[in-house]
Write a structure and sequence with these properties.
There is one protein chain. With 86 residues, this protein is mainly alpha-helical. The protein has one domain. The chain contains 3 helices and no strands. Helix 1 packs antiparallel against helix 2 and helix 2 packs antiparallel against helix 3. It is elongated and about 45 Å long. The N and C termini lie far apart (44 Å).
């Protein structure tokens, strides 16, 4: 059941990224762009979670990489919220 949840979380974050990019294309606004960047990174982090825990459970540990990608993604959103929303 857990692999299905990891996979669906990856799909949900990919859908959010696509919808945010479509919204930014239709109505360019910095918040939409930075939110799309954040969700793109979270999509990568979710797929890394799937690869780490389902495809390569004992071969390699990707937790540091997943955490780094998530941190960079959230910093992109915070930057967009603080500096580009004015």
């Amino acid at each position: 059941m857990a692999p299905l949840v990891y996979f669906l979380c990856g799909l949900a974050s990919l859908l959010c990224t696509i919808l945010l990019m479509r919204g930014h294309t239709a109505n360019p606004h910095p918040i939409l762009r930075w939110s799309a960047f954040c969700f793109a990174g979270l999509t990568v982090a979710n797929w890394l979670l799937f690869v780490d825990l389902v495809l390569l459970p004992t071969a390699i540990d990707l937790s540091a990489l997943r955490s780094g990608v998530t941190l960079v993604s959230l910093f992109a959103l915070i930057y967009g919220l603080l500096h580009k929303s004015r």
